[in-house]
Amino acid sequence: MKRVAGLFALAAVPTAVLAVFFLLPVAGMLERGLWSDGDLDPGALLDVLGRERTGKVVWFTLWTSTVSTVVAVVLGMPAAYVLHRLAVPLRGAVRAALLVPFVLPTVVVGIAIRELVAPSGPLGFLGIDGTPVAILIGLVFFNVAVVIRTVGTAWESLDRRPADAAAALGASPLQVLATVTLPALRPAIVSAAAVVFLFCATGFGVVLLLGGTRYASVETEIYLLTTGALTGAVEYQAAAALSLLQLAAVVVLLAVAARLRAVPDPTVRRARPAPARPRIHDTPALVATGLVLLAIALPVVTLVVGSLRRDGAWTLVHYRALQGAGDAGGSGVGSGLLRVPVSEALTNSLRIAVDATWMALLLGLLVAIVVTRRARSRTEASVRNAFDGLFMLPLGVSAVTLGFGFLIALDEPPLDLRSSPLLVPIAQALVALPLVVRVLVPVLQGIDDRQRQAAASLGAGPLRAVLTVDVPVLWRPLLAAAGFAFAVSLGEFGATSFIVRADVPTLPVVIYRLIGSPGPLNYGTAMAASVVLAGVTALVILLVERLRVPGVGVI
C-alpha cells in the first residue's frame, strides 16, 4: 500500500493539472454540444452533422489527409533508409534539417507554401495557388519528418541477418526489400501512417492559411464557427458538435496507432548495427533523399527571398518593420495595425515558450516516472496502467479543440482564468506534453532496476540512487525533450489563437493577423517575422539533434 500511495503522490500534480485544464474544458465542450438550456438535446448535434457544409468539410478532411499520408510515406521511406541505415556525409545535419518542418509553426509553413505557389513564386507556373493541391503540399511538407523519424528509428535497429541471408540465397535487393525488410517494418510504417493521418486531419494553420473559408477541414471549421467568420455570428454549439466528432475520430486513431506500436517485432534487437557504406543499388534511395531535401528547402528559401524583396529590389525594409506595429490602412506607412510591435510579440513568444517548457518538463517527467515505475503487485500495476491511460488522454484532443474548451469552460467564477497570464503557457505545455513523455518514457524503461538496487545495497538512499543511476542517463534526453517542448510551444497557434490576450500576442498570432490584412508592408513583415521564427526553431532543433538519444523517436 505504501508504493501505491507513492504513485498517487507522484501523480497528484499532473492529475490536478489534467483535471482543471483538460477534463473540465472537455466537459464544458460536451455540455455546449449536447445540452441546450440545461436539457440533453442530441438532435442539435445531429442537425449540425447533417448540414451540407459539414459533410463537405468532413469529406475534404478525409481525402486530403489520406492523400497527404500516402505521399508522405512514399517520400519518407527512402530518406528514412538513407539517414538511419547508411553512413552518408552530414547525416546528422540532414536529419535535423528534415525534422525542422515538423516543429515549424503551422503559420510559417502556410506562408512559405503560399509564397512558393503564388503566381510570382517558383511554382507559380503550375497554377495551383488557392487550390487543394497547395494544401496537400503544405501537409506533406509538414509531416514527412514523422515518417522519416518513426520508420527510420525502427530501421536503425533492424537486424541485418535476415536480409543478408536472403541476399546470400540469391534474392535481389528489391526482393529483399519486399519479402524481408518491409514486413519487418510494417508495424512502424502503419504506425507512422496513422500518426501522419492524425496530424493532417488536425492540421490547422496550414489549411487555414491556404484554404481560407473555401477549403476547410474539421479543425479550421471549428475556428471559423467560433470566430463568426462564416456567417457573422458565433456558433458555439455547431463548433462543439464538430469538436465531439473530431475527438471521437482522433481517439480511435490514437488507439490504433498505440496498438500497432505495441506489436512485437522479433527482428528488432537492442544493439544498433553500424551504418553501412552506400552501394550501387542504394542510388535510387540517395537520389530520392536528395529530392526530398530539395523539396523541404525550396519553400524555406522562397520565404527568405520573399522577405528580402520588395518592388523587384533587395531590401531590409520588412525586417526593419518588425520594430513597428503593422500598417492599418495598407498604405505602406506603418500606421498601426497591431497593439504591440512585432518584435515585442517575439519576446512574448519566447517568454511564454520558456514557461510552457518548464511546465511540460515537470509534468512530463512526473508522468514518465509514474508510468514506468516497476509494479510489485497487481494493485500497483492496475493503478499505474490507469494513470497511463489518464495521462494519454490529451493526445486525443487537438490544439484547436483544447483552445475552444478553454474558451467556454474557464471564463466564469470560480475558474475565471481567461485573463491569467499562465493560461497560454499551460495550454502550450499540454500540447507539448506528449512529445516530452515520448522522449523520456523509453529512456526510463531502459534503466535496469538492478542498478538502483545495487546502489541501495551499498548504502545509497533513494535520492543518492537517483543521482547516481538515473541522472547520468536522463540528462541528455531531458535537454532534448526541453528543446522539443520549446520549439513546439514557440510556434503553437491552434489553442493560442483562442485564448491569447490582445495586448500580449504571440508571434504566430501576429503573423496570421498581418497576412490577413491588406498591404505589401504587412505581408512582407509577416514573411520577415516567419523567417525569424523559423530561424529560432531551426537553431533549437539543431541543438536537440546533437542530444539525440539512439533508438528513441520523436513521435
UniProtKB/TrEMBL annotation:
Q: Which domain of life is it from?
A: Bacteria
Where does the sequence pass through the membrane?
Answer: 57-81, 93-113, 133-151, 188-210, 245-264, 285-308, 352-371, 391-410, 422-444, 478-500, 520-544
Give the record's keywords alphabetically.
Answer: Cell inner membrane, Cell membrane, Membrane, Transmembrane, Transmembrane helix, Transport
- Give GO terms for biological process: transmembrane transport
Gene3D superfamilies membership: MetI-like
Enumerate the subcellular locations listed in this protein's record, separating them with semicolons: Cell inner membrane; Cell membrane
GO terms for cellular component: plasma membrane
Q: Which residues form the ABC transmembrane type-1 domain?
A: 58-257, 346-544
Which InterPro entries does this entry report, sorted A to Z?
MetI-like, MetI-like_sf
Reply yes or no: does the keyword Transmembrane apply.
yes
The family annotation for this protein states:
Belongs to the binding-protein-dependent transport system permease family.
Q: Which protein is depicted? A: Iron ABC transporter permease
